[in-house]
Design a protein that fits this description.
The chain is mostly helical and 100 residues long. The protein has helices at residues 2-33, 41-60, 66-99. It contains three helices and no strands.
Length: 100
């Protein structure tokens, strides 16, 4: 388990940062367009989902080969960066629309 955390710490950290920033952007979009619900609701929700995904990968890591675990971690990283990009584009679009 310690080796798993040590080896995949950079990927998990980058994914965590991307997910938290996605949550911040989602909260800003939601508060700008619909209703202000507080600054930590969306980042906390997104972080909980990421922790569930990472814990599922860690639990299954002993039963599967390391190459599969590596691909799952990197897939999670790519997915979180994709979600971040979508939220960033939506936030910039909502910000530009509100400025007009």
């Amino acid at each position: 388990m310690q080796d798993l955390v040590r080896v995949f710490l950079p990927e998990a950290t980058i994914a965590g940062g991307a997910v938290l920033m996605s949550g911040v952007f989602a909260g800003r979009i939601y508060s700008r367009l619909i209703l202000d619900c507080g600054p930590f609701v969306f980042p906390a929700t997104y972080a909980c989902i990421l922790l569930l995904v990472l814990s599922s990968i860690c639990i299954k890591a002993k039963a599967y080969p390391s190459a599969l675990t590596r691909s799952r971690i990197r897939g999670t990283l790519c997915g979180s960066l994709l979600v971040f990009g979508i939220h960033l584009a939506a936030y910039l679009g909502a910000k530009a629309t509100a400025a007009l």
